[in-house]
Amino acid sequence: MFEVTVEAGFSSGHYLRNYRGKCENPHGHNYKVFVTLIGEELDEAGLLLDFKLLKQVMRPVVDYLDHQMINELEPFTTLNPSAENLARYFYQETAKQLHEMTTGRVRVKDCTLYETDTSFARYYE
Ligand SMILES: Nc1nc2c(c(=O)[nH]1)N=C([C@H](O)[C@H](O)COP(=O)(O)OP(=O)(O)OP(=O)(O)O)CN2
Ligand SMILES: [Zn+2]
């Protein structure tokens, strides 16, 4: 089994609803997201997936969130923009495209979303 991982970063504002504490107030993070792919077969070049292609798949998702108040963007107008929900959002948005792109040869294993250097959430199915 092979895995490849690409990291990306974005800086955004958010606040947590239904939360008691300082994070109920608007504040910002320099987020980091790691998307890990998994598969058994390599392509003709010996790659599970070109890092470049994975970066291209992640880019629109990152650009959508970067320098925005995440609570004002769908689906986070109603879904709390926690690290957990953001990790799942990255998983779902990238999995859709990767399945089509590789006809199922490569799948997303997990997405890990760092809010701070010491706090992160991971989503997988
Ligand atoms: N399981 C989760 N817990 C918390 C989340 C989350 O997304 N999932 N989010 C927050 C807040 O967004 C907060 O900004 C981050 O919390 P925290 O790690 O406490 O941030 P600090 O860097 O300020 O940590 P200190 O140790 O208080 O300095 C809260 N919890
Ligand atoms: Zn926060």
Automatic annotation (TrEMBL):
Keyword Chloroplast recorded: no
Pathway noted in the entry: Purine metabolism; 7-cyano-7-deazaguanine biosynthesis
Cofactor section: Zn(2+)
Binding-site residues for Zn(2+), renumbered to this chain: 14, 27, 29
Keyword line: Lyase, Metal-binding, Queuosine biosynthesis, Zinc
SUPFAM superfamilies found in the cross-reference section: Tetrahydrobiopterin biosynthesis enzymes-like
UniProt catalytic activity: 7,8-dihydroneopterin 3'-triphosphate + H2O = 6-carboxy-5,6,7,8-tetrahydropterin + triphosphate + acetaldehyde + 2 H(+)
A GO term for molecular function: 6-carboxytetrahydropterin synthase activity
Protein name in the entry: 6-carboxy-5,6,7,8-tetrahydropterin synthase
Organism of derivation: Edaphobacter modestus
